[in-house]
Design a protein that fits this description.
The protein is α+β, with helices and mostly antiparallel strands and 296 residues long. It has a single domain, classed as Ribonuclease Z/Hydroxyacylglutathione hydrolase-like (Metallo-beta-lactamase, Chain A, 4-Layer Sandwich), CATH 3.60.15. Helices cover 22% and strands 30% of the residues. The strands form 5 sheets. A 7-stranded mixed sheet has the order 10-9-6-5-4-1-18. Strands 14-15-16-17 form a 4-stranded mixed sheet. The protein has a 3-stranded antiparallel sheet with strand order 11-12-13. Strand 12 and strand 13 form a beta hairpin.
């Protein structure tokens, strides 16, 4: 039987204006207050899917090796080895029990948890896991535009991915959609969006879809509420419209990676061009002992 867990390795902060693009602060700050530096606090949530054969992690968080200056700039708060500590809670797993890691994209707050410092070098955290990465996104990450180059830390993730590939532990995803894996119980599929970053992977099955940075928080559900960080904000709005049609048709629960208060939501159409939350699922509704997610 498939089980789902919501894990919370750490939190960080980003500029509120950048998180909401053209949306004025008097509107977005009603939902997420900013600190004295105009930063808002965000979750570094990851998801674990457990089957009888596999322990599948979606994204890996930010890691703990960037140093005091970085952590202060981004308001990072979390334990040493944050994703390892998160796995110990609810599902009670160790890093070497993870069989698969799906990386939605390679920005530092999603792929940073792939490694940990060992003898002053960055080593793999998940030595037995197959990494599922979109090939075209990986290629882009090694040669991004100057606008988004700061979001990629290839000096950290590239050696880890190359090491995994050397041992046949990288599954390259290709195209707009396809199968990530099928362990005999249920297929785990993906669709891509392109507005935030090219070839952003959104894993989904019959119950959920992982929104990553297409819809980072429940506050971003309205179609025009798009991040200033996005490489192509206009494309993001088009992506959201198409994804929302798919999500509503298939009655999927959206999983939010960065929302501090709500881990997910179901959506409905408010008008032909507007979408709103039908139900939001609060973080405090999860059993604090198991962190297991039971879908409606």
């Amino acid at each position: 039987m498939k089980k789902y867990f919501i894990l919370h390795p750490a939190v960080f902060k980003l500029d509120g204006g950048a998180m909401f693009g053209i949306i004025p602060k008097p509107l977005w700050s009603k939902f997420i207050p900013a600190d004295e530096l105009n930063r808002i606090q965000l979750s570094l949530r990851v998801m674990l899917i457990q089957t009888s054969h596999k322990n599948i992690l979606i994204d890996s968080g930010i890691g703990d090796y960037h140093g005091e200056k970085f952590d202060d700039r981004f308001g990072v708060i979390g334990p040493v080895n944050p994703v390892i500590e998160a796995l110990k809670k609810g599902p009670g797993l160790t890093a070497d029990q993870i069989t698969d890691v799906i990386l939605t994209h390679l920005h530092f707050d999603h792929a940073g948890g792939l490694g940990q410092i060992e003898d002053q070098l960055l080593g793999e955290i998940f030595p037995n896991a197959t990494l599922h990465i979109h090939r075209q996104h990986y290629d882009y990450s090694l040669n991004p535009t100057l606008r988004d180059a700061g979001s990629f830390e290839s000096q950290y993730f590239r050696p880890l991915i190359e090491q995994a590939e050397k041992y046949g532990r990288v599954h390259w995803l290709k195209g707009e959609e396809g199968i990530i894996l099928n362990d005999g119980e249920d297929e785990l599929l993906f669709r891509c969006s392109h507005g935030h970053t090219p070839w952003l992977v959104h894993p989904f099955d019959s119950k959920f879809i992982y929104m990553a940075d297409l819809v980072p928080t429940s506050t971003h559900i309205p179609i025009p509420w798009v991040m200033g960080y996005d490489i192509s904000p206009g494309i993001t709005t088009i992506n959201k419209q198409h994804f929302y049609e798919f999500i509503i048709k298939n009655q999927l629960t959206m999983i939010f990676e960065h929302d501090m208060n709500f881990w997910g939501a179901k959506i409905k159409k408010k008008s032909p061009t507007e979408v709103e939350a039908a139900t939001r699922y609060a973080v405090n509704s999860l059993d604090p002992e198991t962190l297991e997610l039971i879908f409606d």
